[in-house]
Structure formats: C-alpha cells, structure tokens
Amino acid sequence: MTALEKISDESLAILLMTSDLLYRKTKDKDQKPFTHSEWNKFASLLRNSPYSTPATLYDKNEEHLMRDLLLSRSMANKVCSLMKYAGSMAIEIEKLMGMGIWIATRGDKNFPQRVKQLLKEQSPPFFYGTGDGELLRSSAVGFVGSRDADPSSIEFTKRIVRKVVEEGASIVSGGAKGIDLTSQNEALAYGGRVVSFVHSELEMLLRKKEVRKAIVDGKLTILSAVHPSARFTGFNAMGRNKYIYTHSKGTVVVSSNIKGGTWEGANENLKNSWVPIIVRTSENVPEGNRKLLEMNAYNQLVIPFSNESNQSIVELLKKTPSESNNKGKQIKKEDLDLFYLVWPTIKAHIKQGYSSSELCELFNVLPDQLDLWMQRGNKIKPTYNDSPFEQTTLF
Q1: Cβ distance 202 to 222 under 8 Å?
Q2: Cα–Cα distance for residue pair 68/80, rounded to 1 Å
Q3: In a 3-state reduction of DSSP, which class is residue 227?
Q4: What family does the database annotate (predicted)?
C-alpha cells in the first residue's frame, strides 16, 4: 500500500500547503509552505467558501481561486504551485512511513484531540508521530520540571508516576533531560504508557533500542510538530510545552525556577486556563514553585501538593473543576461575588426559554441586577465538552 493510498486527499492537501518536507530538501521557493498564521487565515477563508475543504483545490487554477476566494494573484499562484507537488510529497511521506513515522493532520484520528480542542488555531496543522495512536485516546497526567532537578524532585517524580500508572492513567512528558525523562522512563519501567511530545530529532530517537522496544510493545507514542530531523531550537522547545499541558487532564509541576521553559509553560497554561496544575510543595522546592502558588492563590486551577503526600493525583483531578468549567471565570480576589454561583443557573433557564421578566420573578432580583449579570455572562467565552470525541472536521 502506497502513501497516497494511506493518506486522505484532504490530509495530503494540508501537508502540501503546511509541511516543509519538500522545501527542506530543495529550497525551491515554489515549495515553501504557508506559515502557521498564514495557514490559519487561509483555512478560515476556505471553510467559509463554496470549496469547503482543501481537497477541492487540486483541480483549481489561479483564475478560479482569485474569483471564488478573492485571493490576490500572488496568493493564488502560491496555492496552485504547492498543490502540483502531490506526487513528490507522497514519496517523502512513504520514506517516513518506512522509518515507522506517520503524519496526522488536525482532522485525522491520530491527531491528539484534546490538544486541538483546547488550543484551537494554536494547534499545529499536523504532527509527525510514531507508535500506537490509541495511546492518544487514554486519560493522561503530565509531568514537567527542571533539567537539573535535585534528588528530592527525582524521587518525588518516580513515586507519583508509579501511583498514576497503578491507577491506569498514561503519562505525558516532553522527553527532555531531567523530570521529563525521569517520568517517562519510570512509567515505562513500571509497565505504564507514555505520550511524549518532543521538540526535535524524532529520527534520532528511533535509533535507540529502548525507544524502539517501547514503541513496538505499544507503551510509547512520540509526537513532534517539527520535521523528524530538525535540530534543537529554544523556540521549538518552548512551543511544545503547550502540547504537554493540553494533552493532559492535569500536569504536575515538580520543580521550576522563575526563568526557563518550565516556568513559562506553567504560566502560559494558567493564562489560558487549559488544565489544572499540581504544584509540588516542601521547604526546599525551587523558587518557581513557591511563586506559582503565591501568584495564583485564588486560582482554582493551581493545586498545592505536598512532597510527602500519598494522595492520588488521578482522584484529585477528578474532584478539581476542569478547564472547561473555569475558562473565563477563575475566582480571583476582585471576583469573589455571587455571579459565579448564580450564572450557571441563569444560563440554564435562558436555554429553557425563560424571559427576563420571568427570571427576575423566579430569582427575586431587580431588572438592573439581572441586566448586570447578563452583561457579565455574555462576555464569557463558550466552553467545550471535556469528554473524548472523534473530531470530524479535517482542518
């Protein structure tokens, strides 16, 4: 079976426009793909056009695109130039498949759905991956921390990972030296399952015997948003942090300084209210751990966790309000009022067709008060169901 037979027309079209598989080799400007932001703009335009999906672009010329999508001639030319390399792209995909690497675009089954659900347009157009895609559909707990973690952090990580594995959840890591690899290796040694989002050198990882064995055993799935042979860059390392958080049901911050990837990743997560973070506490934790707890004392997504605690992380996350229940309405000092208690009930009655006057009578409030609550409620962004689902949109 060839790559063209294994990949859908839609996914191949997306790769033609977003992947650097060809351009990386040729440096031919006709094969230079869209940037992430360019693709998001074009995809939005396409979704709202008569074309609907990227697969409709194969038989279109510049005049079609200029007329139907109102593209400039240069942009129409770029799209047409990229689309004509389907055969060459298929050959490159075939080579990757020979190494055990598959590619999943945003609508494919092996694209991590929680990442897409939470990041939306921030999610990459595709991931390179290796391993069993079924691992991506299991509940997981993330682990992040310093590369130069101290013995106390290492021992804490191993102990908590073993408990998470015993309770049937997968581990999410970034595959980097320190806490990431400690959590990954401990989970695999203990018979657990791991999803690892790496920032570079996927091809090189596959040369390691222990990595290949874990993949063959169905215990390890590795994903990368950059080319499998890409070398380390700080930008890519920082970029993959959000995949660790959003793929997890919650992420354990084992050790963080006040600078660096762990610190930036944790704050990015809290800024976007993606998932709860469990922050390790003890007398000797790094300054970043203490700062996270101090800065977010009124944030329900920040959970202190004692270094000596034997509490179940899995059960703790089940009892913690999910990101979808907190999105846009974290309780801070200035927001400690009744709005957050009454708004869900008001919203439910609005959906049932109650009028403003009926709501005032039902809740025994003045119209002005109801209007204020309605104004605040209308500013809250829509939330998304947290249950697993099969994504049907292709891009």
Answers
A1: yes
A2: 14
A3: coil
A4: Belongs to the DprA/Smf family.
Query: Considering just the CA atoms, what is the radius of gyration of the chain in Å?
Result: 23
Global pTM exceeds 0.85: no
Angle at 346 between CA 342 and CA 349, to 5 degrees: 145
End-to-end CA gap in the chain: 25
Q: What percent of the chain has pLDDT over 70?
A: 91
Same domain, 348 and 305: no
Instruction: Give phi and psi for 199, each to the nearest 5.
Output: -95, -5
Whether 99 maps to a domain, the answer reads: no
pLDDT digits (tens, 9 = 90+) for 83-119: 999 999 999 999 999 999 999 999 899 999 999 999 9
Q: How are beta strands 126-130 and 102-105 bridged, if at all?
A: antiparallel
Assess if residue 272 is contained within a domain. yes
Is the dihedral angle over the CA atoms 125, 131, 134, 137 positive or is it negative?
A: negative
Between CA 215 and CA 209 the distance in angstroms is: 10
337 and 254 in a common domain:
no
